[in-house]
Amino acid sequence: MTWSEMQPLLAQACQETLVMVGWSTLIAVVVGLPIGVLLVLTDRGGLLQNTPVNKTLGQIVNIARSMPFIILMVALMSFTRWVTGTTIGSEAAVVPLAIGGIPFFARLVETAVREVDGGLVEAVQAMGGNTWTIVRKVLVPEALPSLIASTTTTVIALIGYSAMAGTVGGGGLGDLAVRYGYQRFESGLMWITVAVLAVAISVIQFAGDYAARTLHRRGGRSGPGPKLRLLKAKEPAAADISKVA
Predict the structure, then answer these.
(1) Which BP terms from GO are recorded (predicted)?
(2) Cα(first)–Cα(last) distance of the chain, in Å?
(3) For residues 166 and 176, is the Cβ–Cβ distance under 8 A?
(4) pLDDT tens per residue, range 208-231
């Protein structure tokens, strides 16, 4: 197979992979973020401590994470058909990819949020902040560099899942490698597909690491910044008290 014949196949496969990974990542982040935060809030000593909810939610996440993706795809075929009307193609592959990515990202979010300094949470509580304020102003902003790194890891994992989805008709680069590289013995096309995946993963990893380092270096909202703002907010009140005395 010549390069002119490979080029349109690679372009279409890359587009399909981009659609699968893009939509599944978006769904995984939107759904997995609140789940990860809730796992922290409902844990022992958390702001919304609730052991039954925490154990149940944690068990669901563990079961979903422990299931191999190829088995998950087969198990979700009926649900995928109900949602998309089909079980083949890149649109159908988004369903198992998203469901597989949600618990994966949720655990990474849980780990990132747990790293936030508890002193900041206590300071906001002392200022009268409620749970939503703490989540919005402290937990998520402080964990943002780690959350970006977690998103990068999730995207890379979903690229691997999408290649696996291609083996069962999901489309994308995995489907191209199997149908042409393996079944038609086009080894050149298969190795080009491998190289494309390797380059894509390297670029995504570099971009994610750069973004996380930049936020961490700036301090975004990490470090002692919020605590200092809280202290400054208390100073005028102390001055007023001295005047009254």
Answers:
(1) D-methionine transmembrane transport
(2) 89
(3) yes
(4) 999 988 887 776 444 444 443 433
